Amino acid sequence: MVVATPIPLLRRGGNKKTAAFGVPTIDLSVDKSIASEMIVKACEDYGFFKVVSHGVPKKVIARMEREAADFFSRPVSQKGRAGPAAPFGYGCKNIGFNGDKGDLEYILLEANPVSLCQRAKTISNDPSTFSSVTNDYVSAVKKVACDILELVAEGLWIEDKSIFSKLISNSQNDSCFRVNHYPPFIAPNHHHDDQELIDNHWDPVSSVHEEELEEEPLHMMTSTVGSKSSRVGFGEHTDPQILTILRSNDVSGLQISSHDGFWIPVPPDPNEFFVFVGDSFQALTNGRFKSVRHRVMAMNSWKPRMSMMYFAAPALDTWITAPPQINSNITNNIYRPFKWGDFKQIVYSLRLADSRLDYFKNHHCPIMTPY
Ligand SMILES: C=C1C[C@]23C[C@@]1(O)CC[C@H]2[C@@]12CC[C@H](O)[C@@](C)(C(=O)O1)[C@H]2[C@@H]3C(=O)O
Ligand SMILES: O=C(O)CCC(=O)C(=O)O
Ligand SMILES: [Fe+2]
After folding, report:
1. How much distance in Å is there from the Cα of 348 to the middle of ligand 3?
2. Substitution candidate for ligand 1 out of 347, 349, 351 with most atoms within 8 A of CB
3. Does the keyword Oxidoreductase apply (predicted)?
């Protein structure tokens, strides 16, 4: 049984806003009452945790990785046939519609079999294999997301264990799937002698030059290789959906933000999944769970980072508001109830780094609840 308590391990002095901690790790094979309590605690304290013994076969992961790697290895002229991302399809450096940029290329897909089947035709020379491999992967991680959401309901002592999972298992769910591919990055002052550090023991904490980052808002950074700004892979943001299930190869770069403003590097773990609380889960729990800010910094690596995210979202017409089992007095609602589809529209009108949930904070607006 793997039960790791999140313990701050290191905080360097001066004005370096970085820290390291033991990622809260939940073994999904342990007794439900233990796992559910740990998940609720991690969602409250960090909005982030790792799951192990998740039951997703290695083969399903390896096949998805191979299909994606094969796509990104193609010439730009071929990849471009699946783009530009609007928002679905192949994208390169441009994220969203409002000028955000990152040092990456990606494919963003709707996570349903019909759409995947259509999209696969522009992505692969063997579309039926691509869509069947992607469907298998998406179904497997969706199951992980549902298991986690049911454990959350249990941990919150809610009788209807499917209160959250049914939102994403609804046939009209709006979940999506993204594969990000970050090119290798070697810092301009990098020496070959450092190779051993890169391969094995490289310490991302000391390599994040925060004094440089503070000069320029992250979302303004471009991806010009060779300048200091080349290090932003995917700028800081929270995910708007309910839950995100991330898996990456063994290349580092992911960082999460602690409540006190430190960037915490997350060591990659290709066999396991990282789980992020999204904005919608924050609203569904009336702020009890926190959506976690995160980003990807291009780290010294000769190898590309490849990550896959399943963003679990409800149907567009689903009301997002805390159920009475969580908040019995609606006058205490932090957020106005909103439909996922309306929230998504706001999301796409804003920049990556914006705090979108603030737009739904209750000030003087009348409270309407669908419950
Ligand atoms: C700049 C943007 C890209 C994004 C939509 C947005 O306007 C703001 C949120 C971004 C984000 C972050 C999490 C996911 O990667 C994503 C697919 C999502 O749902 O919200 C992306 C959007 C995107 O890349 O299309
Ligand atoms: O690529 C990663 O590791 C994370 C990317 C991310 O946060 C996103 O696509 O929303
Ligand atoms: Fe994200």
Report:
1. 14
2. 347
3. yes
